[in-house]
Amino acid sequence: MNNTVTILGTLQDGGYPQPGCELTCCSGIIKNERFVSCLSIIDSIKNKFWLIDITPNFRDQIQIINEKVNRIIPDGIFITHAHSGHYTGLLEMGREVINTTNLPVYVMPRMKSFLEINDPWKQLIEQSNIRLIEMDDRVEIPLNDKISVSPFLVPHRSEISETVGFKIKGKNSSIIYIPDIDSWDDWEIDISKLVEDNDILLIDGTFYHEEELKGREINEIPHPLIKDSIGILEGLDSSNRLKVYFTHMNHTNNALRDHTHEYKNIIDNGFKIAVEGLKFQL
């Protein structure tokens, strides 16, 4: 497999265990080999790789792909949006750590403006550690002669920036990545049709049900519930259901734990759960 996509993380921005969580989901867990949601696109022949999002777990995540590439500096980084888990790993590119030179960082217009006017991100630009490249909705960006990446806008909390998912297209297959979206109903795209038209979908599985969060309003942090997504996708046949992987899971989400009813229900309904290290051929 020369051109592949590898899952580097499957967690919501706060990670697991999440700091400050005193619930049973995180109690007693000191270290966990699950990381904040992120993908790598790898061209092993040319020893190149690109990241989709760069997380606070960058140092650990880069080890997952060491057998395919023998370097730690990506050839480019694609950012979905400005919520903390998706871009703050950019700090590792600064003078204090790796000190990259003009590393391409692909961003949408509002995300670009946010990075340009706010420290410490502005400093990375001024020091030429990173070079921002503005993307356009649904415009394809070639990575090599066989792989391209296309951003597409999705409805999600836009306090700081717009939010995009990505289509990663290779010679043999296409992969859709949507770690964050408010609701499938608020999007003009039919998610079932998207499944049918592509080979793999990694989609928002932040919460399984609305009763997970104690003391917080789940409506303030909207995501499609996995149980509702299963219902929306129930018209798919078994071969299409197997294309769907839930990712970006909150620490409260029992789908993280393979002995639970929630985990079993996802599998029994013919869907899958993303895990670190899983590879897909392009």
Could you walk me through the main structural features you see in this protein, from its secondary elements to its overall organization?
This protein is an alpha/beta fold. It has helices at 58-61, 109-117, 121-126, 191-197, 226-232, 238-241, 261-268; strands at 3-9, 38-43, 48-52, 76-78, 103-107, 130-134, 141-142, 148-153, 164-169, 174-178, 200-204, 244-247, 272-273, 279-281. It has a single domain (3-281), classed as Ribonuclease Z/Hydroxyacylglutathione hydrolase-like (Metallo-beta-lactamase, Chain A, 4-Layer Sandwich). The termini are close together. The mean pLDDT is 93.
Question: Which parts are unreliable, with pLDDT below 50 for 5 consecutive residues or more?
Answer: none
Mean pLDDT: 93
User: If you compute it from the alpha carbons, what radius of gyration comes out, rounded to the nearest whole angstrom?
Assistant: 18 Å
Could you please say which CATH topology applies here?
A: Metallo-beta-lactamase, Chain A
CATH superfamily, please? Ribonuclease Z/Hydroxyacylglutathione hydrolase-like
How do you describe this structure in short?
The chain has 282 residues and is an alpha/beta fold. The chain is built from 7 helices and 14 strands. It has a 7-stranded mixed beta sheet with strand order 6-5-4-3-2-1-14. It has a 7-stranded mixed beta sheet with strand order 7-8-9-10-11-12-13, covered by helices on one side.
